Amino acid sequence: MYRDYVVDSTWSAGSMVLLAMLLVPALGAAVVALLPAGRDRQGRIVATVFAAITFGLTLLVPLVRPSTTDFGWFAYGDGPPVPPLLPWVNLDLPWVPALGLRFHLGVDGVSYPLVVLTGLLTLLCCAYTVRKVPHGGSGRTLAVLLLILEVGVLGTFLSLDLLLFFVFFEVVLLPMYAVIAGWGGPERRAAARKFVLYTLAGSVLLLLGVVLVVTKAGTGNLIVLTGASGLTRTTQCVVFALLAVAFAIKAPLWPLHTWLPDAHTEAPTVGSVILAGVLLKMGTYGLIRVGVGVAPEGAAWAAPALGVLAVIAILAGSLICLRQRELKRLIAYSSVGHMGFVLLGIATLTVTGLQAALLGNVAHGLITGLLFFLAGTIKDRAGTGSLDQLSGLRETAPRLAGLFGFAAIASLGLPGLAGFWGEAFAVVGAVQRGGPLWLTLAAVAALGGALTAAYFLRLLRRLTQGPTTPSVHSLRTTIAGVEWFAWTPLVLLTLLVGVLPALVLVDTALPLATLLGVQP
Amino acid sequence: MSQSVDHFALLPLYAAAGTAILAFLTDLFVAKRAAVLAVTALGGLATAVLALVVGPSAGTFCTTGACSWVATWPAAVTTVLFAALTVGVLAFSAPALRLGAAPAGEFCFLLACSMTGGVVVAYAGDLITLIVGLETLTLPLYVLVGLRRFAHDQRPTTTGASASLTFFLISVISTAVTLLGAALNYVATGALHLALLTPATGPFRPLAGVGVALLVIGLAFKVAAVPLHAWAPATYDGAPVPIAAYLSTASKLGGVLALAAVVAHLDARAVLAVLAVLTMTIGNLVALRQTRMVRLLAWSSIAQAGYILAALAIGAAGIPAALAYAIFFVVLEFIAFGVVVALRPPEADGGTLLDFRGAGRRSPWLGAALVLSLAGLAGLPPGLAGLFAKLSVVNTLVQHGWAWLAGVVVLNAVIALAYYVRVATSLYTLPARIGLTVADPVLMDAALHPRLPVTRPVAAALAISAVVAVLVGFAPQLLFNALT
Asked: ipTM > 0.85?
């Protein structure tokens, strides 16, 4: 029945763009990998060009979107109900019929902001790599891995087939391992191993959940499955439990977050940026699209538990950050807190909460991406990430300190910057949900928000104020052109999303409302 | 009473057996190593081509209701695989044969005999043919494992001989067990043809049950299922690396085919489920602690056999998934052994993991091939073939209500990744710089581990198998179509 709505658009301009979004970075990775080893710098530039083309393609999507899919106005009419997942553009090809796997891609309001974010961050990281290659391996190989990561992440966000979603979910695993293990800090081996084993444990649970759904429902098509999937309540509960643990590891949700601080601390700057900016989003996106979408009753059953864990994550993240003495580790733990807000938004199962989660996703990607860029730069230049040896940055490197201050303040959720909306409205969503449990959770989460402000201000006081330490004194203060190129878009977008959050939320209200079965 | 024989269906067997005889005669009359190798390789190719030409056709040696020689698409595909593995192992052995580490004529003859056994297993339609085929597949390997000629300035070692003896003793026992099982089942049901095998009824049921269990246990030796696995690591490690590759691919495939033929009609679910859980769990856990390359691959291939047994535990419904997994696994495992062959000196053993440190930096293509293969064995992209293999096993298990076994399979996949990434990472690791060093450790390491030239046959075999792995990774449907 969804075919009544989805424009049959195999090989239309839109579907070509979808395919190109995956093929261009894959082709780029192949081309750069095959360049002779001597042409390392050229290889990185070629990779950046391919990343730029991919980013251009992600921006192209709204332009090639057929206008006929605009059903917003008659959803309230008498016609058949609009399916909760209505892709703007759609590409559906058979791949492995024996396993029921179709190469089914599509993009809608929920996934589109994340697609653009992925394209942007990969471009910025590739460009950053042109000038600065972390110690460990050739820069060309790092750029290749970044492009492969982009294929996996974009594929995950674009998949409309459950098994395909799983396949792309797995694609990112080994490249990210290689980035951490190859270009990371002194403890990189252990951190990378922890990352890859945790994440694989998550994705095998995802595999079980996905196969269970496909077996019980007889299809892996997310358009058909989303909302009214026809699964029994028991199946939905089992499936949601499997998927929730899988995505909770990826997101990560307390108490499954322990891989994250190590991975972030050891990963090279670009690795941290991609990991925090995009890879974590695969978990929260998966929870919304697959978890809540395919097993809504299971989600409703598990929501209180998820909400409680999310709030514990917020509190735990903030409290750990208050005692943290390592710069990158602190930002990593702050990610735990921020993702806690996102998960709280999802757990409320209200339109407000889910929108807050989507917004929080994008905002966290922008702000934490920027924070990791800056923290990585400071750590590289000062030679240490210990907050005891870093203070008085304001004196020697005012611009760097200013940018860091901006990012930190955005991260603590100052109204008018991107970080505010997601966190505030996750709390609003919990209040809207009502009842003693959710009101308590909202109150505790708000307290966690206050603690977030406390630790970021503490961080700013220690890092930028105070007497200048020797390591800060000897730090190179100039900001190169490539660095400006990598940071400026993030700064501007943080401002823009802060002022115009509707930019991210356009076209999400209706799908989310139909998904949750409420009127917006 | 005479029986009409359909020689057309037997063509692959004639080609394989002819290859063995021709290799022998060429060695006798031409006595040139290159000629013997060429004849064997061409014979292998002819076997593969004829298997495809015959395809599915009428069986032969038929009685009422069943045939002893059954030509189907799965049989043709596995025959092609046996032939390809034989030619590939021949290519891997070429450098060692050139040095005279083994007499070329005997080597080629034995290998071709083994291939003949594989062809018989693929086409077998009754238990006796199956067991004879399996023995023909294994028998030459006892010799090949220990076949080693030492130059006068080399110190002879006995590792090969002891590996050979271990393998021989265990195999003899397993064959005896298999035959006993087949005999008990025959007494109880009166059936030998695979198509006529049925669970026994009446007073003979317990007897038939014991027969089936013994049959499965005997065959489980061949796939090195825990607790019947102890021979495998010692034998693989003692054998020349190309022969270890053959043992863990062709020989294992033969065992899987035989098990599949049995479980297609008889109920061995309980035995197989227990074997599967033990095999994958213990295989993976022990592999975690290995420090020698071939031993690690041996334990990993034990664990992989566990996943195949898990699919077979369902019964007939699991056979397509099990065969698909086995074929994906064989291709990936073959690449892994091929890279070991290419990275080590011709006559050397598999070496320790330390010997492979930094090898991926010195030889990027070989490193990439090994990463592809290990990722596939772990079931992760870029080894898409391995991902689909795991997906098909898990899918089949969940579909038939064996979700708990699927859970065991995926948990084992996590354990397995721990050692696969350890190996893959060590390929790209530089030696540590500890304290004051006299010389640059990187240069020292490079001097001690020079980049060895990869001979043309080895490179070609590796390239072809890597291309096949990538192809079936992107188009696994080809294989699934061929198997059903």
From this structure: yes
